[in-house]
């Protein structure tokens, strides 16, 4: 009987997660106690024998072997619970999406779990959730009834064996049919609540993902300086996954385990187990069927996982290239793309949930039918063990939830919308930096700009040159309003840019091209259209012509429909740069910022790109940040920066004749070129 109980529990463990820690500990404890008591030594053995004696004295004898409840049910169960509570060991609850948890370093290491935020997500699913709870409760109540029905059946068999009178088939039919009916209803209820719960879980998780993604995209660039993209993506994936699993498990198992534990303790002492039956013969069939359905479910799970990864890929790309997304004010479009992929993965996970539901419903029926003779022993153990799993799961679920909620509540310091706009026909494109001082929020002690002043006259080209780390790119970042100055103002047409609509500023006024153009893994057409989503094909082609890109694009077999690969890996540096220029030009910006736009190119690529840039800059206010001084000689004004200040300014000829910092830079660059 002991072997059977172990086999039964083993199967249960296989189906419901691994909670064998208590068993291993118990087995060790028991064998140690037995061998030690034979040697009459050891504190452990003495405590053990005292416990056994106390239990023997306190329990009234039943038909069960003495101490069986302690040895095979309470012992392992209590040890499992303790191991779980105190040691956090050996629990590996099945994760349908096989997400590998990544260490998350939170800004606030222990964020609070906010119930009211959870409520906002659960509210729309409340009806489905209540139905799931009712069904789960019904299934749990039936689970308690089953051993009692079983008792009726056993009584009939026992009476027949004892008295050998009456019509056996007639007498057994009633209780047997009742029992089968009960199993059927129980299976249906189980499937029902799992389907509903899976739906609630998936929808809550999908809503959380979309809301968190929207909240992340809204954040300032400074937020992304302080947080690694991988961690943010992890909150969108692993944390929400963990939270979802816990949410479903706690509701389904919590209700079932508590009701079942109470009920099974009662029935354990009411019914006496007599039947053994065909279990050994049937078990391999059950295991085989389980393995078959399991492999199907694993396939479903893998597909769902791939879809989740796809959604994560979209998020990762948008967040990883957040400067580009922000420079084109494309937050809304990225959100839509992500929402589409998330909804698809939500649907696939719902299908998976239905598969699991059918599997569990069937396995419940099969196990109940075939293993009924051990039901009352094993159920108590399983219920107790499930409660122990729940403790750990509640803790993990709440901490994952808290990490997700932490970022939902964050408000950006630079709001994306709101503020004034200057009508297109009256916008001149004059920019003034007035006494600007600035430190990056992640390095507040390091002042990058100190009382920096500079004017970009309308339709003129101003270049900034100077030593590396002197603060040139920071000037461009402040114009894009990736950050706000610590003191001083940046003005557009005489208006403080903090009073202007940021979305308008980035999407319509400023075109930004930097050293390493970032493309998205879609077609050339879509990449150029990123600059102006409503642009017609003709506008896209026109922008590509202006940027010297039309020729090479039409040379590809798929032309504008050529997919450029992740981050544009299938294109050369010069080609990528020209697509980036087309993307900036399509919005017809009044101001163009070129941050080292040609410094990563070889001489030939630089020539074609430079040609495109010369054409692109005509009639616009241009700020060029340059390393290669040869590219800026025709600028209307060249400023030399050092230590966050302008130390010299003038035209190329003026600065050369001055013989100061600029001519020194030119000399050094020539010398490097000759080497
Ligand atoms: N996001 C950031 N967070 C914190 N510090 C930064 C950040 N970006 C730049 N810095 C620091 O600010 C200073 C100025 O950097 P910036 O990129 O503006 O220099 P640069 O003149 O453009 O240099 P380079 O010519 O090498 O590109 C440097 O000391 C740099 O380390």
Automatic annotation (TrEMBL):
Gene Ontology BP terms: oligopeptide export from mitochondrion; potassium ion transport
Alphabetized SUPFAM superfamilies for the sequence: ABC transporter transmembrane region (SSF90123), P-loop containing nucleoside triphosphate hydrolases (SSF52540)
Transmembrane residue ranges: 126-146, 180-200, 278-297
Membrane topology summary: Multi-pass membrane protein
Residues in ABC transmembrane type-1 domain copies: 132-369
Cross-referenced CDD domains: ABC_6TM_ABCB8_like, ABC_MTABC3_MDL1_MDL2
Keyword annotations from UniProtKB, A to Z: ATP-binding, Ion transport, Membrane, Mitochondrion, Mitochondrion inner membrane, Nucleotide-binding, Potassium, Potassium transport, Transit peptide, Transmembrane, Transmembrane helix, Transport
Residue ranges of domain ABC transporter in the record: 431-668
Coiled coil: none
GO cellular component terms given for this protein: mitochondrial inner membrane
Main location: mitochondrion
Protein location: Mitochondrion inner membrane
Molecular function GO terms recorded: ABC-type oligopeptide transporter activity; ATP binding; ATP hydrolysis activity
Similarity comment text for this entry: Belongs to the ABC transporter superfamily. ABCB family. Multidrug resistance exporter (TC 3.A.1.201) subfamily.
Cited PANTHER family: ATP-DEPENDENT PERMEASE MDL1, MITOCHONDRIAL (PTHR43394), MITOCHONDRIAL POTASSIUM CHANNEL ATP-BINDING SUBUNIT (PTHR43394:SF17)
Protein known as: Mitochondrial potassium channel ATP-binding subunit
Species of origin: Astatotilapia calliptera
